[in-house]
Specification:
- The protein has 403 residues and is mainly α.
- Helix 6 runs parallel beside helix 16, helix 7 packs across helix 17 and helix 11 crosses helix 12.
- It is 77% helix and 0% strand.
- About 4% of the residues have low confidence.
- The radius of gyration is 22 Å and the shape is globular.
- The chain has one domain.
- The longest helix is centred in the C-terminal third of the chain and has 38 residues.
- The chain is built from 17 helices and no strands.
């Protein structure tokens, strides 16, 4: 009976989407263009180098080398192997869903157990600094100091999620406790060498596979971004978003937060960029409430990113539920940290905030914003060029297979 109900429910959802697509063509087109612009102008060119580089580092054994060196740090803190340090760093630098992509890749390489992979993916999917500081803080709020606060809160609470998740699955991991090995550069290099020798592919094949795998993943990500952009727009067009946000308003008021943030936060639960823009357009007396809303939707990742992660994890035996639970925990911790750190890290508390730089901010916000604008201008060219190169590689391989 449950199976039949599920079939009927999924069919009705698909039918509803089809009807609303036809009923609101202008909203659909506008949302699709917005999703495409975001994907090929920013997401694709910013993630592609990280994905390709990560594939090469895994193939050449560098990740294994890093894993051996960082085992004494990652194991006590997060109860994951040292290779988790590579995934964590790349996840913070490149943004979601890089953490899921790399975790799944290492699981396929048997460098992680199932439980370790579920722990690792729970705290390695983070928003990248370029999006937090340049796109949201400077682009939407015109306030770089806010970006510094949001970044510190986001990454600190993400690390706290990792510490909490270290206790996940311990009962099923009794065989994991073994002897402590002394870490040396020699042992790390030997692990690198052995890993490289196990991969019999020549350099050209490794590089080609890295490009094709990265492009395929980014095409999938683009599809999710466009569809969730359209889906969020349709929810607002038919009034469902407004109706549900009424319930959100009651919850926000119970938490002493302004009800005006209900619709923006609800939109952000589906698509982060849309939610962040709506939050920035909300006129409030204090920026603290907006910072809390932003931190929560950054931490929750949005259903768009979660769908991307679920699709990536589906290729392995890694379960999605621990990741989803961690997103809720991350949202709660991030919201709490904003309240605690706002008086200390946000130094530009005026009614009309202007761009200001705290003395301890090492990255020039204007350069971050310039990089973001540069990506928007040159991103489409990079995307089209990469898709063309990937097509040539695939055509060459198809010709080789037919010979």
């Amino acid at each position: 009976m449950d199976s039949k109900f599920k079939s009927a429910f999924l069919a009705l959802i698909a039918l509803w989407v089809a009807i609303t697509l036809i009923s609101f063509p202008e909203n659909t087109l506008e949302a699709s263009l917005r999703g495409v612009d975001m994907w090929w102008g920013t997401v694709f060119p910013s993630l592609l180098p990280f994905f390709i580089t990560a594939e090469l580092l895994i193939g050449f054994g560098v990740v294994r080398f890093i894993g051996v060196l960082f085992e004494p740090i990652m194991r006590p803190l997060f109860n994951v192997p040292g290779v988790g340090s590579f995934v964590w760093a790349m996840g913070m630098a490149s943004g979601y869903p890089s953490g899921a992509k790399l975790t799944a890749r290492l699981r396929q390489e048997n460098q992680l157990s199932k439980i370790e992979a579920e722990r690792l993916v729970s705290f390695t999917n983070a928003s990248n600094p370029l999006f937090i500081i340049a796109a949201v803080s400077v682009g939407f709020f015109h306030d770089a100091t806010l970006g510094f606060l949001l970044a510190v809160v986001h990454y600190t609470s993400n690390a706290l999620v990792g510490v909490c998740m270290r206790f996940y699955g311990r009962d099923n991991e009794k065989q994991q406790k073994g002897e402590k090995r002394k870490v040396t550069l020699k042992k790390a290099f030997l692990e690198l060498h052995e890993t490289r020798l196990k991969d019999k592919r020549p350099f050209g094949k490794i590089f080609g596979d890295a490009v094709i795998n990265s492009v395929q993943t980014l095409l999938m990500i683009g599809g999710f971004i466009i569809m969730f952009s359209v889906f969020t727009s349709l929810l607002r067009a038919v009034g469902i978003a407004t109706f549900i946000s009424g319930g959100f308003a009651v919850i926000l008021e119970a938490l002493y937060l302004p009800s005006e943030l209900a619709l923006p936060i609800f939109s952000g639960l589906f698509e982060i960029t849309t939610g962040a823009q709506l939050i920035s357009n909300t006129n409030l007396d204090s920026l603290l409430a907006q910072a809390i809303g932003l931190s929560f939707i950054f931490a929750f990742n949005g259903f768009s990113v979660q769908a991307q992660v679920a699709s990536i994890l589906a290729e392995t035996d890694i379960r999605f539920l621990p990741y989803f639970f961690a997103r809720i925990l991350h949202g709660i911790l991030a919201s709490g940290l904003v309240i605690l750190l706002f008086p200390y890290l946000y130094t530009n508390q005026t009614d009309n905030p202007t761009i200001s730089i705290p003395a301890f901010l090492t990255i020039e916000p204007t350069s971050s914003f310039s990089l973001y604008i540069f990506l928007q201008e040159t991103g489409p060219i990079i995307t089209i060029s990469t898709l063309f190169i990937a097509s040539l590689i695939m055509m060459h391989r198809l010709k080789s297979n037919f010979r």
